[in-house]
Amino acid sequence: MTLICYISWVLAMEHQEIFHDAGLAKLISSFSTPGGSHSHINAETPESIHEGGELGYKLSAAFGAVMDKQELIVACVVGDSEAETDDPELTAPYSGYGYQVRLYLKSRKSRDLKGTFGNEIIPWLYNSLTPGEHTFLNYLLMLKLPHPLAFLLDLAANLLNSVPPILLVYIKSFADLALNANPAIITGVPHESILRVIPAVPSKRFLQRKETNGGYNELVTPEWQKIGMQKGIQESYMKRVGEFLLEVIKENPTSFCIFSPDELVSNKLDAVFKETGRNFQWDVAARASGGRIIGILSEHKCQGMVQGCTLTGRTGIFPSYEAFLGIIHTMMVQYAKFVEIAHETKWRKDIGSLNYIETSTWMRQEHNGFSHQNPSFIGAILNLKPAFARLYLPPDANYFLSTVSHCLRTKNYVNLMVGSKQPTPVWLFPEEANEHCIAGASIWKFASTDGGVRPDVVLVGIAVELTFEVLAAAALLRKEVPELRVRVVNVTDSMILGPERSHPHPLLDSDFNALFTADRRIIFNYHGYPGELRGLLFGRPNTGRMEISGYNEEGTTTTLLDMMLANGVSRYHIASAAIRGAALVNERVAVGAQQKVPLFMHRAQKARDYAIQYGQDAPNTYDTPKFE
């Protein structure tokens, strides 16, 4: 591939030094060396959208690339050891999938290959894939060759008779130059006999497809505020997001897709079906080439297809159960590395962001249980290079709408949004929520003592259910420990918590202290594993005053409050921690701490007993907290 780029003059656009005296020798000697070119196809290779890997990964990315683009031909190169079964076993499954399979099986003897590739395979393949009145597009070519090294050794003598005509010209010209010219005058610049067969217009040259660079279609995003809600009601995140995505599909009928391994109806995103349908390729009558929903119960396939879709100019969104996004962890990391290298490659242009939505979270598993309780994908996102990763944990539906709208407009990121499909309170008006999302965090004055002025302790909620428990704790403290002064903070953009210079937009230390105070106890109630947040905060001054609660691998099939109690993130745990923290600076709180903390923990045990006895949380447990 590198040699073809060289001959096609593509590399000349970025690497003029290659065509000095050292020429091709420099290109070859820098291959797979420190400071040189990579040993495999990557984002620095023109027209590439995938670095390789297992067969299924590459195929699914290829499928995503050609969606809605019947005229586009994608070459998916599969290395040896990926398909080492007998011929019937190779062809039968794909025939069952609806493909018309053509298998070419060649021995190591070069005479068996003479002329086949250029004179038979390529014309058949191209004609098969070219749309026409009587053409079916589900063709699959399998070219089964010996190991590449053995193949090349046997093929060498007859190479010129077995390659496509255009490459034949290149090789003959270079051979004539090498044999007939004076070696002393041979330079690194390709000979004129080679250059004259290369199109003068750069866009017509090999490896110049717009889809793989410069074909990004920015989405037209509707105003989410028009479907935002007034504060004080309870609404499902996902239901409102579904209404928003419905409008996105209307505005972008060919450049936006949803890839989902889980049932959209279950995740309450089914409003999109008012405008579109599922894309069943095998059923022409069922939106075989028009549905914007790709639903297949395979996280790997969805990941590969959303990559192919995104890297060829479209925008995709990938909603899934929280526990199962971890299945595609390594695929996501490989994609992020590709995007990082692409961003550092001067000639590569921007692409849309890859957007994930986590729902059916660990605390809402009333019917599934421990196996469905796993927020580890959050840590996978946090471990990416900060310049290309974003993590959002909005506290209500208005915040989530603002976040989705923002993420669909971003470029070159991997965005993860975590939300709930169950009805939850709407805390702020749309305009207030939008301002909060821009800042990434804010003091919720309505839940704080005197608007949050001079607090004894700071309570921080990160994500919807965890924020609810913080607010329930604040309401409990206001009623039963009125002398305790509380500041309630919500964080929706967790990346701002990292120390200065750790991320493109962390809070300055001065702003961090203004939000959380410089010396008061901070109690974080966090959606993911506590160690993730602890690592994010590492480097901030005075971290010893920070107490972090989160998911601690305690799970079963149970109620929401019982799950919170099991993991130590309930309102009773938060209220108890607040009393202990405030007692360090407020003598009036300290006097009653010994009595109040056991009382709250006794209530926690009673709540667990109730859930076990009646199979549900006590009535009014999740009524919206009141601050009077």
Automatic annotation (TrEMBL):
Residues 11-86 form the Xylulose 5-phosphate/Fructose 6-phosphate phosphoketolase N-terminal domain. InterPro entries: THDP-binding, Transketo_C/PFOR_II, Xul5P/Fru6P_PKetolase, Xul5P/Fru6P_PKetolase_C, Xul5P/Fru6P_PKetolase_CS, Xul5P/Fru6P_PKetolase_N. One of its GO terms (molecular function) is aldehyde-lyase activity. Keywords: Lyase, Thiamine pyrophosphate. The keyword Cell wall biogenesis/degradation does not apply. One of its GO terms (biological process) is carbohydrate metabolic process. The keyword Lyase applies. SUPFAM superfamilies: Thiamin diphosphate-binding fold (THDP-binding), TK C-terminal domain-like. Its cofactor is thiamine diphosphate. Residues 421-624 form the Xylulose 5-phosphate/Fructose 6-phosphate phosphoketolase C-terminal domain. Coiled coil: none annotated. Gene3D superfamilies: 3.40.50.920, 3.40.50.970. Belongs to the XFP family. This is Phosphoketolase. It comes from Pyrrhoderma noxium.
